[in-house]
Design a protein that fits this description.
Blueprint: E1 3-10, E2 16-27, E3 30-36, H1 40-47, E4 50-57, E5 62-72, H2 75-84, H3 87-95, H4 105-118, E6 130-144, E7 152-159, E8 162-168
Antiparallel strand pairs: 1-2, 1-4, 2-3, 3-6, 4-5, 5-6, 6-7, 7-8
Helix pairs in contact: 3-4
The chain binds flavin mononucleotide.
Flavin mononucleotide is lined by residues 4, 17, 19-22, 33-35, 39-41, 98-99.
Amino acid sequence: MLDVAALATASARGEAAVRFVLLKQADEHGFVFYTDKRSAKGRTLEENPSAALAFYWDRTNRQVRVEGSVEAVSDEEADSYWASRERGSQLSGSVSVQSSPLKSRAELVARVARAKSLFAGKAIPRPPYWGGFRLRPTRIEFWIRGASRLHRREVFIRTGKVWKRMMLQP
Ligand SMILES: Cc1cc2nc3c(=O)[nH]c(=O)nc-3n(C[C@H](O)[C@H](O)[C@H](O)COP(=O)(O)O)c2cc1C
């Protein structure tokens, strides 16, 4: 895991939502996180594949903001990350319908117990609805706290393959 980030999405009707996710990969191809695609965020990203991430590090007084479009990671990538997860997380991912109502906590615990015995001694396969999204950035902004609110802001904006860099007023 690289870090925790706030992930913002907007529905087709323009309704905004934000929640934290664990960032699993960040490289020249984009920023990857994993989730249940049936979740509220999964469904929203399906109807409007644009998203934003925000990171904040209190100890260094830095913020990074990323905006762009998302696409699903390949099945191979998702399989490989799924296989690296601990068994308990695989069980939870197999029985929880993320963001759907739950009658009782006991029901969920019972589902985990059933899955545990069903998969005893076997590998737990990645459910088809569980996977990753890769945010391909078109805008990345670095913010560093400055004295008396004279923060430093530097933004990189991509048009096609070209990144343009500029400073912004704090
Ligand atoms: C620190 C932290 C990390 C989280 N990481 C993830 C994650 O990687 N994937 C995920 O689906 N939910 C993660 N969650 C839970 C989400 O914030 C959220 O509750 C869940 O995904 C349902 O969101 P949704 O209803 O908007 O889809 C995390 C929560 C916290 C507090």
